[in-house]
Amino acid sequence: AARASLQAALDDCGITTTVLDLERNESAWASCSAQNPSSGAFGLTSRNLAYIIYTSGSTGRPKGVMIEHQGVVNLLISMRHTPGLEFSDVLASVTAFSFDMAGVEFYLPLIVGARIVIAPRPVIRDGALLSGFLDRNSVTVFQATPALWRILSSTEWRNTKLKALCGGEPLEKKLASILLQKVNVLWNMYGPTETTIWSAVASVSSSELIHIGRPISNTRIYLLDGLGSPVPTGVVGEIYIGGAGVARGYLNRPELTAERFIPSPFIEGDRLYKTGDLGRYLADGNIEFLGRNDFQVKIRGFRIELGEIEARLLSHPSVREAIVLAREDQPGEKRLVAYYTAAPDADEIEVESLRSHLSSALPKYMVPSAYVKLGALPLTTNGKLDRKGLPAPEGDAYGRATYEAPVGRAETALAQIWSQVLRIDRIGRRDNFFELGGHSLLAIVVRNRIQETFGLNISLRTLFEAPTLETSAGWLALQDLTAQDNLIETGSL
Q1: Please, which residues have CB within 8 angstroms of residue 5's CB and are 6 or more apart in sequence?
Q2: Residue 47 Cα distances to 68, 109, 196, 220, angstroms
Q3: What is the mean pLDDT of the chain?
Q4: Which DSSP symbol is given to 369?
Q5: Residues 392, 357: contact at Cβ < 8 Å?
Q6: Residue 488 has what pLDDT?
């Protein structure tokens, strides 16, 4: 009855399919061999494609990454031993099917006979629901991105028997410190999609120095300089990955494949994937991940590492998460913008507090102009940070003093000039030009506008020494009075 009901349901949906009834058709297959067919007989090898998965990359144009069976099998066999999975384990699956991390969650339990429990979508974005799900199902192994671990760690949840795998994005010290108090073992996982999910793993025992460890089985990692030569210990180089996990290339993108997948100069026949990631060897041979080489930006001639600013911002006791972008919301006007979420139970964070914290350790050109507080960082469906979803800063994101209306002709006129140059609607007399996003190039524009409006020459040095509207306008008023006195003395009035 059940079989007939299922067939009828399929027919009603207009689905044409062949149903194999193992009981009714037993005579048709019982005499067949119980052995798996020989792959060689069908021309199959480990170099056949296992899947094609799309990744957008920095350009936003999807790239189809062609992963072969040898890469998947190599990863699973390696992970079976390190970090390790036993038949008695229970692994929670939370990753969207479109994200390659899901391959570990589905296939690894199968090769060892472990149990997999799949979390419903609504559970994954709610820390309380997720913690309850893990506890009810007695989960012993859990793999997630840092963003999802933060959601879970924001609750009172704790499982001292859990093996925690963190990957997909860099593991920050602050998050590692929290997780080490909540789980049994913490592993940091590293690897781009193009080298089959994970290429290096590291057991994390302290949050003082987070590294990505060493390559997994049959995988080689090289740190090379701009000329393609290996760098010595302690020197920063770009990460290149070779070995069994390297993808065949990008689907229908031969030029990009040739650019990113190169012949190895070290092992004949091997290919290296140029990751665009930076790292350095530590004294013990482990590799420290240092971010993306395309996260370096250039603003007004200065080269700036965004990760360095983020690390300093994260050291503020009231900041939980931090991201820094170079935004160009107005053509030709690029500014650093910091996005952050507050730590649990943190007091209200003043923009000036964050600015002062950064200024104490960073040069002025690396201190962001705007600071945007978010309830949570925006995430993609894969649980990664959605940088494109970060909002443009509004007026209150800049360092603003308590608003006091401009007083007098000079302050009112100067406030109008600042408003036009900085593109900020309301300027108070206590506001600081540079804390509102001003810089030396914009100061030149202000100087020229002052000359046109007041007929006075003002040096850039004066703008830096008198950066608030009140002090700058006071200087203008003084110069105006001096000019009038000179005219009286010469009899020109």
Answers
A1: none
A2: 5, 23, 13, 19
A3: 86
A4: S
A5: no
A6: 37
Query: How do strand 237-243 and strand 115-118 relate by DSSP bridges?
Result: unpaired
Rounded-to-integer distance, Cα 375 and Cα 145, Å: 18
Q: For residue 434, what pLDDT band results from cuts at 50, 70 and 90?
A: confident
- Residue 356's identity, in one-letter code, is S
Instruction: Kindly list the distances between the CA atom of residue 347 and the CA atoms of 66, 154, 396, 484, in Å, as whole numbers in the listed order.
Output: 49, 16, 18, 51
489 band by pLDDT with thresholds 50, 70 and 90: very low
pLDDT value at residue 333: 66
What span, in angstroms and rounded, lies between the C-alpha atoms of 234 and 281?
5
Which of 383, 312, 400 has its CA nearest to residue 151? Answer: 383
CA distance 201 to 421: 50
Q: In what order do the strands lie in the sheet with 370-373?
A: 319-330, 333-342, 370-373
- Cα distance between the two ends of the chain: 110
Residue 264 pLDDT: 97
CA nearest to 422, candidates 405, 407, 406, 443: 443
Residues 146, 189: contact at Cβ < 8 Å?
no
pLDDT tens per residue across span 176-206: 999 999 999 999 999 999 999 999 999 999 9
Judged against a pLDDT cut of 90, whether residue 367 lies above it is answered with: no
Distance CA 461, CA 324 (A): 29
Instruction: Measure CA 80 to chain center.
Output: 28
Q: Which two tokens stand for residue 209?
A: 């120095």
Element housing 116 (H / E): strand 115-118
336, amino acid identity: L
Amino acid at 50: A
> In this predicted model, which residue has the larger pLDDT, 164 or 409?
164
Is residue 213 within 8 Å of residue 200, measured between CB atoms?
A: yes
- In 145-218 the beta strands, taken as DSSP E runs, fall at 159-166, 183-190, 200-204, 214-215
- Alpha-carbon gap, residue 218 to 245, rounded angstroms: 8
3-class DSSP state of 31:
coil
**CA 334 to CA 329: how far, in whole Å?**
7
Mean pLDDT in residue range 431-448: 78
Instruction: Give the pair of three-digit tokens for residue 232.
Output: 């010595």
Q: Is 4 helix (H, G, I), strand (E, B) or coil?
A: helix
CA distances (Å), 213 to each of 77, 230, 284, in order?
18, 18, 10
Range from 14-28, 337-351, 469-483 that averages highest in pLDDT: 337-351
Q: How far is CA 471 from CA 230, 369, 379, 416, in A?
A: 55, 21, 44, 15
Spatial neighbors of 13 by CB under 8 A, at least 6 apart, are: none
Q: Give the integer Cα–Cα distance in Å for 192 and 21.
A: 42
Angle, CA of 181, 186 and 189, to the nearest 5°: 145
Strands 219-224 and 237-243: antiparallel
